[in-house]
Amino acid sequence: AIVTLGAAAGGVLGGWLVDRAGRKLSLLLCSVPFVTGFAVITAAQDVWMLLGGRLLTGLACGVASLVAPVYISEIAYPAVRGLLGSCVQLMVVIGILLAYLAGWVLEWRWLAVLGCVPPSLMLLFMCFMPETPRFLLTQHRHQEAMAALQFLWGSEQGWEEPPIGAEQGFHLALLWQPGIYKPFVIGVSLMAFQQLSGVNAIMFYAETIFEEAKFKDSSLASIIVGVIQVLFTAVAALIMDRAGRKLLLALSGVVLVFSMSAFGAYFKLTQGSPGNSSHVALSASVSTEPVAASVGLAWLAVGSMCLFVTGGPQALRSLLARLRLLHLQCPFHLVLCP
C-alpha cells in the first residue's frame, strides 16, 4: 500500500513541478526516483529497503501520471489529440498486463531490474525531445516555442497561441463562479467514484484473490484479466465519441453493481469467516469450506472479475483521460489535472 502513498505525494509534487520546471524537465526528474526505487528494491536486504523502494517508485508514478498526459496533449496535433489522450490509459493497462506476464516467469528481484528499463529509456529519449510550445510561450520564449513546433509538427499550421493570461493560477475565490465550481465538483466526483470502485485493489491483489479462490493457476488467471482489461479499454476509447460519455458511465455503473455482487456472493459462499489480508500467516485459516467446493466455484470469481474490468472503471478512466485535455481550453487546468 505504500506505493499509493508515494503516488499521492507525487501528484501534489507533479502539480507544482509542471508549471515551474516545465513538462520536459518534470518527466526527466521523475525518472530518477523510478530508477532509484527499483534499484533499492533489487538490492533490498530487509523489509525497510523494500518499503523505501516502493515509496520512491510510487512518488515517481504520481508525478509521471500527471505530467505525461499534459506533455502529450500539448505536443499532439489537434486532429489526433483526443486519440492520444485516450491512449494514455491504454498504455497504463498494457503496462499492467506486461507486469503480470513478467511476474509469471521472473523472480521479484529480476522483475525490479526489468522495472528499471522503461524509465531509463524515457530518461534517454526525453533528452532529445523539446519542451512543449505552450509552456515555452508562457515563459515568453517565443522563438524556442516556434522551433519546438517546427520539430514536432513540421510547420505552424493548425497552431493557436494561448490567450494572454491563460496560464493564471487557481484561486479559491474562483469557485464562486458557476462556470468553475460545477465542472470542478463533477470532475472531482468522477475521480473519487473511479477510485472508490475498487479497481486498484482488484488489480493490485488479483493474484492473491485468485489464490484465496483456490484457482488452479492464479498467475494465469491474472494475465487473463489483464488481457481483457486491455481489450476493453481500447474498445471504450474507440466508441467513446460515438456512444457518448454519459451512456458509457451509466453502463459502467450497472456492470460494476452486477460484477461486485457476484464477486461478494462467491466469497460469502466459500468463506466461513471474514478476512481481507494478503499475508500468508493471516489468510491461511480464512477458508473453512472444503477445497473442492471452492474450486467448483472458482469460475464465479474469475468471471466476476473479468466482467468488472470489461465494463467497469475503464470507461470512466478513459473519460478522465479526456478531461485532462481540458487544460488546453480551460485556464484552470491546475484544478482538473491533479
Automatic annotation (TrEMBL):
<feature type="transmembrane region" description="Helical">
    <location>
        <begin position="297"/>
        <end position="316"/>
    </location>
</feature>
<feature type="transmembrane region" description="Helical">
    <location>
        <begin position="218"/>
        <end position="240"/>
    </location>
</feature>
<feature type="transmembrane region" description="Helical">
    <location>
        <begin position="247"/>
        <end position="267"/>
    </location>
</feature>
<protein>
    <submittedName>
        <fullName>Solute carrier family 2 member 8</fullName>
    </submittedName>
</protein>
<dbReference type="InterPro" id="IPR020846">
    <property type="entry name" value="MFS_dom"/>
</dbReference>
<keyword id="KW-1133">Transmembrane helix</keyword>
<dbReference type="InterPro" id="IPR005828">
    <property type="entry name" value="MFS_sugar_transport-like"/>
</dbReference>
<feature type="transmembrane region" description="Helical">
    <location>
        <begin position="83"/>
        <end position="102"/>
    </location>
</feature>
<feature type="transmembrane region" description="Helical">
    <location>
        <begin position="184"/>
        <end position="206"/>
    </location>
</feature>
<keyword id="KW-0813">Transport</keyword>
<keyword id="KW-0812">Transmembrane</keyword>
<dbReference type="GO" id="GO:1904659">
    <property type="term" value="P:D-glucose transmembrane transport"/>
</dbReference>
<dbReference type="Pfam" id="PF00083">
    <property type="entry name" value="Sugar_tr"/>
</dbReference>
<feature type="transmembrane region" description="Helical">
    <location>
        <begin position="51"/>
        <end position="71"/>
    </location>
</feature>
<dbReference type="InterPro" id="IPR050549">
    <property type="entry name" value="MFS_Trehalose_Transporter"/>
</dbReference>
<dbReference type="InterPro" id="IPR005829">
    <property type="entry name" value="Sugar_transporter_CS"/>
</dbReference>
<keyword id="KW-0472">Membrane</keyword>
<keyword id="KW-0762">Sugar transport</keyword>
<dbReference type="GO" id="GO:0005886">
    <property type="term" value="C:plasma membrane"/>
</dbReference>
<keyword id="KW-1003">Cell membrane</keyword>
<dbReference type="InterPro" id="IPR036259">
    <property type="entry name" value="MFS_trans_sf"/>
</dbReference>
<feature type="transmembrane region" description="Helical">
    <location>
        <begin position="108"/>
        <end position="129"/>
    </location>
</feature>
<feature type="domain" description="Major facilitator superfamily (MFS) profile">
    <location>
        <begin position="1"/>
        <end position="338"/>
    </location>
</feature>
<feature type="transmembrane region" description="Helical">
    <location>
        <begin position="25"/>
        <end position="45"/>
    </location>
</feature>
<dbReference type="GO" id="GO:0022857">
    <property type="term" value="F:transmembrane transporter activity"/>
</dbReference>
<dbReference type="InterPro" id="IPR003663">
    <property type="entry name" value="Sugar/inositol_transpt"/>
</dbReference>
